[in-house]
Design a protein that fits this description.
Elements: E1 5-10, H1 15-25, E2 31-38, H2 42-52, E3 56-59, H3 65-74, E4 80-83, H4 84-93, E5 99-102, H5 110-118, E6 122-125, H6 128-145, E7 148-151, H7 154-162, E8 176-183, H8 201-205, H9 214-222, H10 224-237, E9 244-248, E10 254-260, E11 265-269, H11 275-283, H12 297-300, H13 314-325, H14 329-345, H15 353-363, H16 373-398
Parallel strand pairs: 1-2, 1-5, 2-3, 3-4, 5-6, 6-7, 8-9
Antiparallel strand pairs: 8-10, 10-11
Helix pairs in contact: 2-3, 4-5, 5-6, 6-10, 6-14, 9-14, 10-13, 13-14, 13-15, 14-15, 14-16, 15-16
Bound molecules: nicotinamide-adenine-dinucleotide and magnesium ion.
Residues 11-17, 38-39, 41, 60, 103-105, 108, 126-129, 153, 210, 212-213, 215-216, 274 line the site of nicotinamide-adenine-dinucleotide (NAD).
Length: 399
C-alpha cells in the first residue's frame, strides 16, 4: 500500500507543469497536488487550481496576487494564496509537501529550487539553469540535507536510468568511461550558418521532436540547451568535461547513454514525451503508466548519430569552456544566454547574435570563484547588466 505523495509544482502553468499534472491526474491514489505556482499567468493558474484543488497557490509577480485571490474566490476555490519569491520558497519548504517539481524556467527558479533541496524534499529537477548557475552550492545543499534529487531533463533522466544505483560523483570507481549525451540538433541542425541570419522566433521555436516552452526551444535551436546540459551532467553525475560526449541524434528516441569500462553501452529509449521522465521520477523506484504509447521500432526503422558541429553551433564550445573555467563562468554563461534569448524573442537581437552576446559577456567577466550563493547571484546580476549593454549597443549600431 503506497502512501499519497503531496506534490508542489513550481512553474505549473508551463510545459513541464502541464505534463506533470497530466501524469498526476492518472494516479489519484498515489499523488495529490499540494501547491501550484506561476509567474503571472493568473487565469491559467486559477483554472489549474479549480481542477486540482491544491492547498496553496502562488504568483511570483506579487502584483498579480489580488487578481488571483479574486479569481479563486469567484470559482469557489479555497486555497491559500502566496506571492513573490518568498511565497515560492515557502511552498518549496512546506512540511506537508513531500515532493517538489522544480519547473520554473531560468535562474529565476534558483532560490525556490534550492529551498526544496535545503528542506530535504524529493526534488524533481527540470530547472537545469538552477544547477548550471549554482552547481557546487546546489549539490552541497542536497548532500547535507539528504534531499533525493531526481533529474527530469530527458537526457539526465536517461543517464540516471542507465547508471548503477545512484553513482553521482563516483563515475571512475563505478567503471564508467563516458556519458553520451544525445541531442536532436534542433530545428536548424541541417542548415548552413549563412541561412540563419534572418530566422524568426517562430522558426526557432518550431522544434522537430519536442513541444516545449519558448526559452528552451530557442536554446535547442542554438544548441545552448545541450551546452547547459553538459554542465548539468557534470554536477549531477560527477563527470569531467572530457567524459561528456555530445551525440547528435535527429530522431530523439535514444535519450542518452552510458559507456562502461568493459565496452558496454547502455541506452534509454522512448518517445520524445516528457511524461516518461516525469513518471519515472514521481514513482521512483517503482514504475507507473505515463500515458505514453509503446515505442514502435518498426515504424522508426532507423536511428542515426552524427558528430556535433562546433562551428555552426558555437554555444557548445562556450559551454565546455565555461565548465572548464569554473567559478562564475557557468553563471555568467547562463545569465548572458537568458538576456540574449529574451532579446531575440522580443525581436531586439538577430538569432546569430545570441552566442556572440554570450561570448562577449564571458570575455569581460571577472575571474572570481564564487563560493556562496550571494556570490553566484552577484555574478548573475553583473552578467545580466553587461549582456544587456551589449544587446543595446548592437541595436544602436544597427539603427
Ligand atoms: P515554460 O516557459 O513552458 O514554463 C515556465 C514556468 O515557469 C511557467 O509556469 C511560468 O509561469 C514560470 N515562470 C516563468 N518565469 C518565472 C519567474 N520569473 N518566477 C517564477 N516563475 C516563473 O517552460 P518549460 O518548457 O516548462 O521549462 C521549464 C524548465 O524545465 C526549464 O528550466 C527548462 O529548461 C526545463 N526543461 C523543459 C523541458 C520541456 O520539454 N519543456 C525539457 C527539459 C527541461
Ligand atoms: Mg534535455
Amino acid at each position: 500500500m503506497t502512501t499519497i505523495q503531496n506534490i508542489a509544482i513550481l512553474g505549473a502553468t508551463g510545459s513541464i507543469g502541464a505534463s506533470t499534472l497530466d501524469v498526476i491526474a492518472r494516479h489519484p491514489s498515489r499523488f495529490r497536488v499540494a501547491a501550484l505556482t506561476a509567474n503571472r499567468q493568473v487565469d491559467e493558474l486559477a483554472e489549474l487550481c479549480r481542477r486540482h484543488r491544491p492547498d496553496y497557490a502562488c504568483v511570483a509577480d506579487s502584483s498579480h496576487a489580488p487578481r488571483l485571490r479574486e479569481r479563486l474566490a469567484g470559482a469557489g476555490v479555497g486555497c491559500k494564496v502566496l506571492a513573490g519569491e518568498a511565497g515560492l520558497v515557502e511552498i518549496a519548504s512546506l512540511p506537508k509537501v513531500d515532493c517538489v517539481m522544480a519547473a520554473i524556467v531560468g535562474a529565476a527558479g534558483l532560490r525556490a529550487t534550492l529551498a526544496a533541496a535545503k528542506a530535504g524534499k524529493k526534488l524533481l529537477l527540470a530547472n537545469k539553469e538552477a544547477l548550471v548557475v549554482a552547481g557546487p552550492v546546489f549539490m552541497e545543499t542536497v548532500r547535507s540535507s539528504g534531499a533525493t534529487l531526481l533529474p527530469i531533463d530527458s537526457e539526465h533522466n536517461a543517464i540516471f536510468q542507465c547508471l548503477p544505483p545512484f553513482a553521482a560523483g563516483e563515475l571512475a570507481t563505478k567503471g564508467i568511461r563516458r556519458i553520451l549525451l544525445t541531442g536532436s540538433g534542433g530545428p536548424f541542425r541541417a542548415r548552413a550558418r549563412a541561412e540563419l541570419h534572418r530566422v524568426t522566433p517562430e522558426e526557432a521555436c518550431a522544434h522537430p521532436n519536442w513541444v516545449m516552452g519558448r526559452k528552451i526551444s530557442v536554446d535547442s535551436a542554438t544548441m545552448m540547451n545541450k551546452g547547459l546540459e553538459i554542465i548539468e551532467a557534470h554536477w549531477l553525475f560527477g563527470a569531467s568535461p572530457q567524459q561528456i560526449q555530445v551525440v547528435v541524434h535527429p530522431q530523439s528516441v535514444v535519450h542518452s547513454m552510458v559507456e562502461y569500462a568493459d565496452g558496454s553501452v547502455i541506452a534509454q529509449l522512448g518517445h520524445p514525451d516528457m511524461r516518461t521522465p516525469i513518471a519515472q521520477a514521481l514513482a521512483y523506484p517503482e514504475r507507473i503508466d505515463a500515458g505514453v504509447s509503446s515505442l514502435d521500432l518498426f515504424r522508426i526503422g532507423v536511428l542515426s548519430f552524427e558528430q556535433p558541429d562546433f562551428e555552426r553551433f558555437p554555444a557548445l564550445g562556450l559551454a565546455y569552456a565555461a565548465l572548464r573555467s569554473g567559478g562564475a563562468a557557468p553563471a555568467t554563461l547562463n545569465a548572458a544566454n537568458e538576456v540574449a534569448v529574451a532579446a531575440f524573442l522580443e525581436g531586439r537581437l538577430p538569432f546569430l547574435r545570441i552566442t556572440a552576446v554570450i561570448e562577449e559577456t564571458l570575455a569581460s567577466a571577472a575571474a572570481n570563484t564564487p563560493a556562496a550563493l550571494e556570490d553566484v547571484l552577484a555574478a548573475d546580476a553583473s552578467a545580466r547588466g553587461r549582456a544587456s549593454q551589449i544587446v543595446a549597443r548592437f541595436n544602436s549600431n544597427a539603427a
